[in-house]
Amino acid sequence: MATADGPQQPDSRLSKTTRERLVSVGRHAALLVWSFVVLFPLYWIVSMSLKPPSAAISLPPDWIFLPTVYNYLQLLQQSSFVYAFFNSVFMVSASVILVLLIGVPAAYVLSRYDIPKQRDVLVWILSSRMLPPVAVIIPFFVIFRALNLYDTRVGMIFMYITINISLVVWVMKAFFDGIPETLEEAARVDGATRFQAFRKVILPAAKPGIFSVAIISFIFAWIELLFSLVLTNNNAVTVTMQVYQFIGVRQIEWGMLAAATTATIIPVVIFVIAVNKYLAAGLSFGVVIKE
Predict the structure, then answer these.
(1) Residue 248 half-sphere exposure toward CB, CA atoms < 13 A
(2) 169: Cα within 13 Å, side-chain hemisphere
(3) Transmembrane segments in this chain: where (predicted)?
(4) pLDDT tens digits, residue range 177-188?
(5) Digit-coded pLDDT (tens) for 130-173
(6) N or C: which terminus of the chain has fewer CB atoms within 10 Å of its end residue's CB?
(7) Cα separations in angstroms, 58 against 54, 75, 77, 129, 251
């Protein structure tokens, strides 16, 4: 019995290549939208800093305008802001160096040696970040006044170290745990001491972790405001306090505030760009070791 084949229905399924292209387009579109959401506030601050004071908060906003550096010139004429800016650069940089000198060896010891109650020690280190800053600010104020550390650079550097030490120890311990101990054993076989193996083998392999915690520690210390408000007055004033001064009781100087905010972003960007080169080198070094 002969049967006639009916008309074939077209295949409505998309090919694998088409699906991959759609997924790629959707992913890039989502990243583009997210980039806009993240970068738009930065654009708004920078554009506001380049507008005349009268046009800084005009509604509707002026999207096309003639840029001016008036706000930055006014900012540079304020010696208090310039002093606070370089004050913060010195104190934050010193605190990052010291917290790495303390935290990295401590993390290495916790990773490589069997210490009694090691878990308790790690929890004790982490406990320094468990309480909110507002809960410990009064005890720190009393201690600083008793030790003559109030409104001193040494006191603020110590404060920044206290803020970041737990981060450095925990992150670097996890990083050292991921580095094979056979590297150190090979160096010891070649005649290196334990310290030489740590300095010449382990530290280069740990570059990604070191520079990562350095960046985070720098940012955490740079943007800190509460401890600066309570523990400083004149000599150790920070740049975040000076930015806060532009918010008055009856008036906010939006142009100056935007210029000061933009100026405080610049050191962080420069530091991240400078460290990124070494971070990439450390990452490639780690990949070679892992293979």
Answers:
(1) 6
(2) 22
(3) 29-46, 81-109, 121-144, 156-176, 209-232, 252-275
(4) 888 888 877 877
(5) 878 888 889 889 999 999 999 899 999 999 999 899 889 888 88
(6) N
(7) 7, 21, 25, 42, 15
Residue 238 is encoded by which pair of tokens? Answer: 């920070």
Only one residue has tokens 């550097």, namely 157
Residue for token pair 């971070």:
279
Predicted TM-score of the model (pTM): 0.79
Structure tokens at 147: 């030790």
